[in-house]
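ok so for the tutorial part 2 we go from a plain amino acid sequence to predicted structure tokens. step 1 is just haveing the sequence, like this:
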Amino acid sequence: MPPLRTFAPRKSALVIAAVAGAGLPLLSAAPALAHGYTTAPPSRALLCQQGTVRNCGPIQWEPQSTEGPKGFPAAGPADGTICAAGDSRWAPLDDPRGGAWPATSLTSGASFTFTWKLTAAHATTSFRYFVTRDGWNPTQPLTRAQLDLTPFLQVNYGGRIPPYSVAHTGTLPAKHGRHMILAVWDIADTGNAFYQCSDVNFG
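step 2 — the prediction. this is what the tokens look like for a chain of 203 residues:
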């Protein structure tokens, strides 16, 4: 990134005066939009950012940006585009890679603490966690038919703003073998949510 350029106060004042005199609106700092990604279990977006998985495209620089329409599962990203939040820029996250994404080992039915890193917090409705059904096909892009559509863990925020480090402890579902956990962060005051897919193995 090139260094920021600074101007002497008098010159800045002249620039502002010129813009105002031209009848153009002055730009003000807009509030930050919400962004974040799951760190435990690590999401596909985070694995790309860390370089654990290669050939991910631009998501490697923006693991926090998997933002798409909220309302899942009734609305939200289309089937086959859920991990990328329906955004074609992040399409490599939907590629199952033959079922070869690194998977985090979990214990069926055990207590587990899910964690997020937020780069910009926002008023929040809830964080919800879904898991794939038994017999799902890890070599196919994720669809609603492959998921248990009732979250096994839901933490409601009622519009409160979460901290930048978020932790939710709950009981893992009774599963065995390879699965995927879909974490959905529902934003309260926009029409969007954040979607994070984590490959896991219950042994």
